[in-house]
Amino acid sequence: MRRSNWMVKAVIGAALAAPSMFAADRWDVARDYRRVDAMRDDIARDRARLNEDIRCGRQAAAARDAADLARDQRALAAQERDIRHDRREGRDWR
After folding, report:
1. Cβ distance 88 to 34 under 8 Å?
2. Is 17 among the domain residues?
3. Which of left, alpha, beta for 57 (phi over 0: left; psi -120 to 50: alpha)?
4. CA 78 → CA 32, 43, 59, 69, 83, distances in Å?
5. How many domains does the chain have?
6. By residue range, what is the domain housing residue 36?
7. Alpha helices in the chain (DSSP H)
């Protein structure tokens, strides 16, 4: 009797915890998408700044902008890989 009572409580506890786990996953994926949007905006600003520096002949500033752009693009690629990983795990809510 004790064992079956413990088993019922464990099943009920797991059922009650499941929705909160899905909500956390949803929040995580939504935050990832917001971060990607912000990164894309930052990359667009970096490209515009780089193009302006190249057009005006500011080579040192263009080199700094190119390094910043490359760093942001690597971060964006990593974030997109994280989103794909979340989708493979079935945690995509869109």
Report:
1. no
2. no
3. left
4. 11, 14, 29, 14, 9
5. 1
6. 26-88
7. 2-56, 59-88
* pTM of the model as a whole: 0.64
Whether 62 and 54 have beta carbons less than 8 Å apart is answered as yes
Question: Could you tell me which of 44, 50, 28, 51 has the C-alpha nearest to residue 76?
Answer: 44
Give the residue from 73, 80, 78, 75 showing the smallest Cα distance to 50: 73
What does each of the 94 residues of the chain score in pLDDT, given as a tens digit? 566 666 666 666 665 555 544 555 666 788 889 999 999 999 999 999 999 999 999 999 999 999 999 999 999 999 999 888 877 766 544 5
Q: Let me know if residue 18 belongs to a domain.
A: no
